[in-house]
Amino acid sequence: MAAVRVLVAPRLASALLPLAGCHRVPSQRAALHSSAPRTGARVALVLSGCGVYDGTEIHEASAILVHLSRGGAEVQIFAPDVPQMHVIDHTKGEPLERESRNVLTESARIARGKITNLAQLSAANHDAAIFPGGFGAAKNLSTFAVDGKDCKVNKEVERVLKEFHGARKPIGLCCIAPVLAAKVIKGVEVTVGHEQEEGGKWPYAGTAEAIKALGAKHCVKGVTISFLAAGRRLWYQVAL
After folding, report:
1. Of 15, 41, 155, 207, which one is least surrounded by beta carbons within 10 A?
2. Is the full-model pTM beyond 0.90?
3. pLDDT score for 155
């Protein structure tokens, strides 16, 4: 993962902190590695297909699911019922002609079939929402891959982001997904890692400039996770 951005309320920290592998607070670290059951947060995971080049980054989605499970969260998986922008042959990295796939149907592969149309997601029924990365966020949940700062965001994705933000509930955005919030939430502060490629370490560093062009603020914190709790912003260095 290039970066993870999460705005977290205190009661959800035990479920979401494992995503960061946080090492700054010993008591929290001990709690994260405990096998004792914890009261679960209700977390919505929003997918964009199946496969890094035309959908969800499967490694990111899997890592999120594992850590949320360890944290005792109750997870429900969603995806929009829309066509993919295109289908990529992942052995060649090239588009397949005359082939089309559905984002909801493809996302069901990761969800083992237990998936819900994004139109049914309501912030009233969940404590947090997380969007894994993968090019699907820029191709299927938005048109960022084609239109950059002039992109459009899927109407259900926009609604969900605004609902959770308006309800002051946590939103997690991995890899390229922060561009979604940058487009629909005015003045939001996000990170996609560094603003320089640094010899290929951050190959999509240029995205930071696009985020600024969208009117959002970009934080250069390496790979980080942010917590917004009790009006204070706390930064933790993480390794993903």
Report:
1. 155
2. no
3. 98
